[in-house]
Records
---
Amino acid sequence: MQKELLKVEDLRQHFPIKGGWLGRTVNHVKAVDGVSFTVYEGETVSIVGESGCGKSTTGRAILRLDEPTSGEVHFEGEDLLALSKAQMRKKRKDLQIIFQDPYASINPRQTVRQVLEEAMAIQNVVPREQRAERIRELMETVGLGAHQADRFPHEFSGGQRQRIGIARALSVNPKLIICDEAVSALDVSIQAQVINLLKKLQREFQLTYLFISHDLGVVRHISDRVIVMYLGRIVEIGDKKSVFDNAQHPYTKALLSAIPVPDPEKNNERILLKGDVPSPINPPEGCRFHTRCPFATDKCRTETPELRAEDYMKEGHLAACHYMKEIEAGEMQPQ
Ligand code: SF4
């Protein structure tokens, strides 16, 4: 049986909007609004969705880089939101994050050796006298030469800097790594190299990844399971094959239709969504997707669909749409 590593329950992140003379809270941006999911040991779960769907905010809230408004985050059974700030800092040894722009998260005045040494010293994971050897190992593990450890971040290319970001995350022997758009800024060929490196490291060190990305092509390559988010909520979740081959939510179908297909014989008709993503300050009532959904009815405008399964769906595959069965059966036509 798979072991639960991370369990997120009803997580909410509402950022206050201040206004008026007194700077009072006049409203909230509901960036994450009731998100629940589990990540099992050794798997890669991806969170996908358009910009502003709440995927990166979810990652930051799990690590408490921004304090969540409410909800629960359990890591190995321990409630992370109940930890003091000092306890949480220690806990970050087990939960690391790799950002899209490693350069922004690395001190440009430090050499790579200093960056890695600092990470190990803060978490006190490797005795001082063994750190030089550990740095040599880490550099080689991520495909950089040990001799490059005394260079500064600006002396490296984008792909190499992301390898430094990975080395820094690995330096404290984490169990879970949150990859927040970690390969999005890289050229396609470099992207593939970094993804292959992440997969290799996962096998070697039994790592678990929460992979946050807007790029479904990358997600298809790396994931075991996929979570699709729209306007702060999960609209579909399931194993990769179920979601990619048998997507149920109209939003997921639209996202998938935008992936380029290499085979010209295959007809992948692009589903164009109308309008923009609504504001997370006043999200639409009922199904949040109804303002853009080609199947929306009056019920969609008033009743919020829960995540659920139909009997033809594979175990663990859930979607939040009132009409997935009717759409699947071709009984409803897009308008
Ligand atoms: Fe579209 Fe209605 Fe389903 Fe929402 S519930 S995805 S609006 S059909």
---
Amino acid sequence: MRILAARDYDHMSRQAANIISAQVILKPDCVLGLATGSSPLGIYRQLIDWYQKGDINFSQVRTVNLDEYVGLGEDNDQSYIHFMRSNFFDHININQANTNVPCGTNPDTEAECSRYDQVIKNLGGIDLQLLGLGPNGHIGFNEPNEYFAMDTHKTPLTDATIQANRRFFEKEEDVPRYAYTMGIRNIMQAEKVLMIVSGKQKAAILKEAFLGPVTPKVPASILQIHKDFTLVADEEALSAFTHEEREKWNIE
Ligand code: F6R
């Protein structure tokens, strides 16, 4: 586990965008695992900027997104497929046929989950998976639980997640109650995992996830044992780490 400290959200976004950009330059047809939410917006803006300046080429890149709300399709502006197109895909030269998001409108849960596992398998696995950290320690929509769910599955969203996502919807009733999400095995099998975390409100859960025990009650904690895991966190998110903990993890 490698922990990089960033001054603030913009600095975190640039550092993470550098890592993604290096991946694309070194392997132009790489498979990027992508996330939605507030955390990666700065990364997507930075990558779009570099694309516009001619510094990065996405023409051969393939992508798989972590998750999608059950019931929301591409015509719904709160769906994750819509988020990805409007915040990233529509602004770069990626072949949209090479982008994948679980299909929220497929009512056949079993079929959709095994289809998505097969999509990841057919791509040859994920080279670099980008993750945000949920307020309750979730990754993708792998919510705190008694066990780690391995493969793509449909999951009820916890109250903490519904509350956290409430800001994107007009009314609380509009927040979907279920999501399709990659499982822990899908994420852990990625060659590299990159997590970004910003803000004071994530400080306690960040410390619990990476300095506490590995447990499905804090799903992100499993990343402590990933073979190539990089965390980029800003100073506010790292504010619960003590001086000794920073020294131990070589955080400058
Ligand atoms: C998004 C996802 C979620 C978010 C997490 C953090 O695709 O899978 O796990 O990464 O909820 O969200 P933000 O970045 O909005 O704080």
